[in-house]
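Observation: inputs received (chain + adenosine monophosphate).
Thought: call the complex predictor directly.
Action: predict_structure
Action Input:
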Amino acid sequence: MDLKQHIRHVPDFPKAGILFYDITTLLRDPAGFRATVDQLAAPYRDRPIDAVVGIESRGFILGAAVAQTLGAGFVPIRKPGKLPSATLQESYALEYGTDALEIHEDAVDAGQRVLIVDDVLATGGTAAAAAQLVKRAGGELIGLAFLIELTFLNGKEKLPGEQVFSVLHY
Ligand code: AMP
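Observation:
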């Protein structure tokens, strides 16, 4: 199955100059969704993962499915103000300004083995903030898994020392 064939490219979304990788066309295909989750989970099948952390919002779809596949729990990382209990927050730089992400402070037990999942690794700011949150919460970060890595944006440079796996590269 060629997953790339099922990913729609939308120019100038959400703003001019951005080529958006739309995975809704992949997820709606039953075999495509199955193959996506299988390939994302494959490197971790023989390594114990306690929790999969998904980043809002497409990371929820992929992360929850990977968690089920690996027999792990699921933990959400969300935009500020969405999680109801006490949170840890991490800010990160955007092209213009800053943004932030939150995790429940009790979402990960000390030493739990955590895998972070998201759809796209672009500049890496989002993933780096998520990695910090997992560590501050007490988790052992085993790795980060992405469906798509935009290699020309060098997002991996923001994740030094981390194990990064991407199914597809552009
Ligand atoms: P970044 O922090 O730059 O690595 O951006 C990563 C986040 O933005 C991910 O959660 C992606 O869902 C989203 N994202 C960034 N660039 C794109 C793109 N070209 N197409 C689709 N999603 C993107």
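Thought: report the result.
Final Answer: The mean pLDDT is 97. The first strand starts at residue 8 and ends at 11.
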